[in-house]
Design a protein that fits this description.
single chain, Alpha-Beta Plaits, 4 helices, alpha+beta
Length: 157
């Protein structure tokens, strides 16, 4: 026995283990607080999505019997549907997305377009020349969409 002296590597290992043992309660508290904060954020987000999905607006697209869109019309309509998510800015993606739903009632097929209530003006705009859009409520209930205008860039002179 040499009086309790340890080699340098072993003493360093014991010092690291002691530091971890001292910091462990603080690390556990920090991890618990981080977990609680993450749960709170995801709960708040889930409530925002639920509220957005509950207030969705549905319009019916009724095509004529001669409806046969070309590639350009389909591309233009898809860009038109992309504006729905911009009109519902501030809502999580799941709640602001446009949904196209098909259903059959009494042997007739129906095509419904659903979106966030802030995007009702965009949803009721016709996308195709030979498709009528029927809104569920009156036209006076439709609020206009206001897009934020980006600030102009200053030119470097």
């Amino acid at each position: 026995m040499n009086g309790g002296h340890l080699p340098d590597g072993a003493q360093l290992l014991l010092d690291i283990a002691h530091g971890i043992a001292v910091a462990a309660p603080y690390l556990a508290v920090a991890v618990a607080i981080g977990f609680i904060v993450a749960c709170g954020i995801s709960w708040r987000r889930a409530l925002r999505v639920r509220d957005a999905l509950a207030g969705r607006v549905r319009v019916e697209a009724v095509p004529t019997s001669t409806f046969d869109p070309g590639e350009g019309e389909v591309r233009r309509w898809s860009q038109h549907l992309g504006r729905v998510s911009y009109a519902a800015d501030g809502t999580p993606k799941r709640g602001r997305a446009a949904r196209l739903r098909y259903s059959a009632e009494h042997g007739r097929m129906h095509c419904y377009l659903e979106g966030h209530s802030h995007a009702q003006a965009v949803l009721t705009m016709p996308g195709f020349a030979e498709v009528e859009i029927r809104a569920g409520g009156s036209r006076s209930d439709i609020r206009p969409v206001r897009f934020s205008v980006p600030t102009p860039r200053r030119s470097r002179s």
